[in-house]
From TrEMBL:
<dbReference type="InterPro" id="IPR012779">
    <property type="entry name" value="Peptidase_M1_pepN"/>
</dbReference>
<dbReference type="InterPro" id="IPR014782">
    <property type="entry name" value="Peptidase_M1_dom"/>
</dbReference>
<dbReference type="GO" id="GO:0004177">
    <property type="term" value="F:aminopeptidase activity"/>
</dbReference>
<dbReference type="InterPro" id="IPR027268">
    <property type="entry name" value="Peptidase_M4/M1_CTD_sf"/>
</dbReference>
<dbReference type="Pfam" id="PF11940">
    <property type="entry name" value="DUF3458"/>
</dbReference>
<dbReference type="InterPro" id="IPR024601">
    <property type="entry name" value="Peptidase_M1_pepN_C"/>
</dbReference>
<keyword id="KW-0378">Hydrolase</keyword>
<dbReference type="InterPro" id="IPR045357">
    <property type="entry name" value="Aminopeptidase_N-like_N"/>
</dbReference>
<dbReference type="InterPro" id="IPR001930">
    <property type="entry name" value="Peptidase_M1"/>
</dbReference>
<dbReference type="InterPro" id="IPR042097">
    <property type="entry name" value="Aminopeptidase_N-like_N_sf"/>
</dbReference>
<comment type="similarity">
    <text>Belongs to the peptidase M1 family.</text>
</comment>
<dbReference type="InterPro" id="IPR037144">
    <property type="entry name" value="Peptidase_M1_pepN_C_sf"/>
</dbReference>
<keyword id="KW-0645">Protease</keyword>
<dbReference type="InterPro" id="IPR035414">
    <property type="entry name" value="Peptidase_M1_pepN_Ig-like"/>
</dbReference>
<keyword id="KW-0031">Aminopeptidase</keyword>
<feature type="domain" description="Peptidase M1 alanyl aminopeptidase Ig-like fold">
    <location>
        <begin position="447"/>
        <end position="548"/>
    </location>
</feature>
<keyword id="KW-0862">Zinc</keyword>
């Protein structure tokens, strides 16, 4: 194959031509669709002399082309590969093209495609070029008017961005709808839909008194599952007005749900297209986590209306400008709607599980990448989740009031523009007066900083010194990194569990009980005075920076922090560190076949936390959930799959046996005492009850867990029990799986849970079961949700079975990637990343994974995105 071309940030320049207006006429038929596009084009003042007009197009059949009403002949333009070139264009002109496309056979789910009986679009990042010829880049912003035409009986609902300006009937049973968007936008925000969908209607009154029509379009059988999403949208709109003073700017806000979508959702201006799993929910079919995810994703896409749509990107290298900022905003929204501590823990778990390994692997990149081959490969945890942490650090350094002023200034300066990350940071500096020059390194340097903390106490002078040392590891293309500016939110705790005033050396007045240190050198010391006795430090409270913290805490100190730290995140983090140190400390003993034992102080600490009278039950559940085998592996330089599994199972079995009576008592205490409610207290109770059940299942008969499954009155409890049963090699497991399938086989989203539960099972024969399920009538390789719930869940969430020594787990992943390469290259590339850590395993497994990577790389007609992932992994 021809090696794909790499694009570089350093080569970026503004477009030579701007498209001021776009008028689309989309005529949808069963076997083909005609798209007529009329563009009002003007040459940019900075355009080079004689610069041609370049338009992108992919899988388009060009039928007609006109400039200012004159039909062009083939000598007037060139069409090579995916680029249409028009030389010698005037200063301003009208370009009209007509193309034929085939959405009904478009399995990539990009551009205009047909799925589940509906025509839908997905244009981010570069999907608009699959609809018509266009300079498909985010810094070309245009006013859009779109007319959609289709058969009225089959597709009664016709939607596009903006406001409906005209609709009517046509000959032969067809009809049309014309939509006009008053806001200029880049092509990636274009959307249209044609289908037979139910519409749930509501409204929201803005702070200025405008009434906004809310419309949710879903399959008819799902019309009763929209209420939570609608309420989440109204909460999002009110929160953005109150928190950032941002009001919605159109008369209508529409959401369309589909079961066939490559990602979570898309913020197209005024017409969001969603993966149905982030819209549809009711207690019988959705878990607490589903409800929370819907609230967060609904908020995320709504918040994009300002951070992404009103102010957009000048190029795709700046993706974190909108995604990192909007993830931060949706995290803050969800924190305000529920438990801030539990939300923070949840977000950090995702970061550590997905982004830290990315930073340590072959695809490591800064939150603003320097280059890419396939843009879809950079919708990553680094851009989104680490990007949000970078925004959060700015918020920590500036404080909430100055941060809000910075946001206000950012919108004042750049509303309606396509800008870069520098513009955001500059607005924050100018609004606050804080110099963020050093901080900008977070945008350009990849890698997770490792911060080592040394402690020293002088009993004579009553001085306590913390010395921080940082090292930013080498990553592909980057070495010899500069030290980052890192906020360390911290406190000191006395032996009595009480906080100690933080008075830095040289200060006259007594300091606060908590403060933020700014650490920006390779090594830096901070000395606190007036410390009567040696304290225990509480560092990086609330996870104040995305770093790996190394402190030589003893088991006794971790137990102390677990029980006394006033910061709930650090209580959880101490528990996780305690568990990780314990389990990883056993791995060598497993390898040497030595007898394992668990310390009594650790068992006592777990019991104390479990039975605590005042702690949030959700925090207890988070703290006492053992780190996953994947998380434990990420803490090892060389991952010992079998040792981790054996050690973790031993710890879980031992805690289950030694605390059997406590697990049972708390489980019964958390039993439901009424109808399902979604308040924080009820969610916390169900979460802790589920954790207790996972431990009880290790020491009680399977009948106990089956009874919990059979008596469940909501999907949260039902799925929790089914998940526990899936790990048991017992007839009750098979019985429950059969009952669950028969009850929910008509609901595709619930079936995704059924697939995932079996894919992540610890039972023997799980790989063979997964392969069999891939042939199940309800599994569809063309549906990304199905692929993620079965193959993705197995390869990413079940390391012990995936890394079987016979290599058959690797065969399953390689075969899936090769199959998807021809169907949906974007999903294929994401699946291929499952091999990214191959060099961190034992020599035998390395050889097996490398062979599968090479087989993928040698596949004929390999997509550029898959090529990029695999070739970088093999370096």
């Amino acid at each position: 194959m021809t090696e794909p071309v790499e694009k570089h940030l350093k080569d970026y320049k503004r477009p030579d031509f701007n498209v001021e207006t776009v008028e689309l006429h989309v005529d949808i038929c069963e076997t083909e669709t005609h798209v007529t596009a009329t563009l009002g084009v003007a040459k940019s003042p900075e355009a080079a002399e004689g610069a041609p007009f370049l338009l992108d197009g992919k899988e388009l059949e060009l039928l007609e082309i006109e400039v200012d009403g004159r039909t062009l002949s083939e000598v007037d333009y060139t069409l090579e590969g995916e680029v249409l070139t028009l030389p010698g264009m005037p200063e301003a002109f009208s370009l009209k093209t007509k193309v034929k496309i085939h959405p009904e056979t478009n399995t990539s789910l990009e551009g205009l495609y047909f799925a589940d009986g509906t025509f839908l679009t997905q244009c981010e990042a570069e999907g608009f070029r699959r609809i018509t010829f266009f300079p498909d880049r985010p810094d070309v912003m245009s006013s859009y008017r779109c007319t959609v035409v289709a058969d009225k009986a089959k597709y009664p609902v016709l939607l596009a961005n903006g406001n409906l300006v005209e609709e009517g009937a046509l000959a032969d049973g067809r009809h049309f709808a014309t939509w006009e968007d008053p806001h200029k936008k880049p092509s990636y925000l274009f959307a249209m839909v044609a289908g037979d969908l139910a519409c749930r209607k509501d409204s929201f009154t803005t702070a200025s008194g405008r009434e906004v029509a809310l419309r949710f379009y879903v399959d008819h059988q799902d019309a009763d599952k929209c209420e939570h999403a609608i309420e989440s949208l109204k909460k999002s709109m009110a929160w953005d007005e109150e928190t950032f003073g941002l009001e919605y700017d159109l008369d209508i806000y529409m959401v369309v749900a589909t079961h066939s979508f490559n990602a979570g959702a898309m913020e197209n201006k005024g017409l969001n297209v969603f993966n149905s799993k982030y819209v549809l929910a009711k207690p019988e079919t959705a878990t607490d986590t589903d409800f929370q995810n819907i609230e967060g994703v609904i908020g995320h896409e709504y918040f994009h209306n300002w951070t992404g749509n009103r102010v957009t990107l000048c190029n795709w290298f700046q993706l974190s400008l909108k995604e990192g900022l909007t993830v931060f905003r949706d995290q803050e929204f969800s924190s305000d709607m529920g438990s801030r501590a539990v939300k923070r823990i949840s977000d950090v778990r995702v970061l550590r599980a997905a982004q830290f390994p990315e930073d340590a692997g072959p695809m490591a990149h800064p939150i603003r990448p320097e280059s890419y081959i396939e843009m879809n490969n950079f919708y990553t945890a680094t851009v989104y989740n680490k990007g949000a942490e970078v925004i959060r650090m700015i918020h920590t350094f500036l404080g909430p009031d100055a941060f809000r002023k910075g946001m206000d200034l950012y919108f004042e300066r750049h509303d309606g523009g396509a800008v870069a990350c520098e513009e955001f940071v500059k607005a924050m500096e100018d609004a606050s007066g804080v110099d963020l020059t050093r901080f900008r390194l977070w945008y350009s340097q990849a890698g997770t900083p490792k911060v080592t903390v040394d402690r020293a106490y002088d009993a004579e002078t009553k001085h306590y010194t913390l010395t921080f040392t940082q090292a930013v590891p080498d990553t592909p293309g980057q070495s010899n990194k500069k030290p980052m500016q890192i906020p360390v939110k911290m406190g000191l705790i006395g032996a009595d569990g009480m906080p100690i005033p933080l008075t830095l050396e040289g200060e006259s007045a007594q300091g606060p009980l908590e403060r933020v240190l700014s650490f920006s050198a390779n090594m830096e010391s901070f000395t606190f005075t007036g410390v009567e006795d040696e304290p225990i430090p509480s560092l990086f409270r609330g996870f104040s920076a995305p770093v790996t913290k190394v402190v030589d805490f003893t088991e006794e100190e971790l137990i102390f922090l677990m029980g006394n730290d006033p910061d709930p995140f650090n209580r959880w983090d101490a528990a996780q560190q305690l568990f990780a140190d314990t389990i990883l400390g056993m791995v060598a003993d497993v390898r040497d076949d030595k007898k394992l034992s668990l310390s009594e102080p650790l068992v006592a600490a777990v019991k104390k936390t479990l039975t605590h009278d005042t702690l949030d039950k959700a925090l207890i559940a988070q703290a006492l959930t053992l780190p996953s085998e994947t998380e434990l592996g990420d803490r090892m330089a060389h991952i010992d799959v079998d040792g981790i599994h054996a050690a973790r199972e031993f710890v879980a079995d031992t805690l289950a046996e030694k605390l059997k009576m406590s697990w049972r008592a708390v489980f019964e205490e958390c039993a439901d005492d009424g109808p399902y409610t979604l308040d924080s207290e009820s969610i916390a109770r169900r979460r802790l009850k589920s954790l207790c059940l996972t431990y009880l299942a290790r020491v009680e008969t399977p009948i106990t867990t089956f009874e919990a499954f059979a008596s469940a009155t909501n999907m949260t409890d039902e799925l929790a029990a089914l998940t526990v049963l899936s790990d048991l090699d017992a007839e009750e497991s098979e019985k429950a799986m059969g009952l669950f399938y028969e009850a929910w086989k008509a609901d595709t989203l619930v079936l995704d849970k059924w697939f995932m539960t079996q894919a992540t099972s610890k039972r023997p024969g799980t790989l063979e079961r997964v392969k069999a399920l891939a042939e199940h009538p309800d599994f569809d390789i063309k549906n990304p949700n199905k692929v993620r719930s079965l193959i993705g869940a197995f390869c990413q969430g079940n390391p012990w079975h995936f890394h079987r020594k016979d290599g058959k787990g690797y065969d399953l992943l390689a075969d899936t990637v090769i199959t998807l390469n021809a169907i949906n290259p974007s999903i294929a590339a994401r699946m291929a990343s499952g091999f990214n850590r191959w060099k961190r395993y034992d020599e035998e497994r390395q050889g097996l994974m490398k062979a599968r990577l090479e087989r993928i790389k040698n596949t004929e007609n390999l997509a550029s995105g898959v090529f990029e992932i695999v070739s970088k992994a093999l370096i």
